[in-house]
Each structure stands twice: as structure tokens, then as C-alpha cells.
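Entry 14. Ran structure prediction on the chain below.
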Amino acid sequence: MLRTYHIPLLAVLVALFMGCGRARYDARLVQADSLMWTAPDSALATLAAIDSATCS
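Output, C-alpha cells:
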């Protein structure tokens, strides 16, 4: 009976290690977020300048 807990436990541990990894994001997204309420046109221009290939 104890062996049946190994597989779900291993799956949970793997999910925790994969999910808690360092997030990769573009610093321009943070800049656009900070400009969103004060200068929405500048935020939109910043978002438009980000190439979609760099986000993936």
C-alpha cells in the first residue's frame, strides 16, 4: 500500500520544482505596466514594440 503513494508524491514534487522555477519575462512588460494608468499611449507603444518571438 505504501508503494501506491510514491507516484503521486513524485508527481507533486516534480510539479513544485517546475512551477516554482524562475519566471522569465521581458522588462519592457514591467515598464508598460507602470505606464498603463498614467500614459496609456506610451504603454501601448511599448507593448507594440515587443516582438512576439521574444515573449515565447
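Residues 21 and 41 are 33 Å apart (CA to CA). Will compare against last week's run tomorrow.
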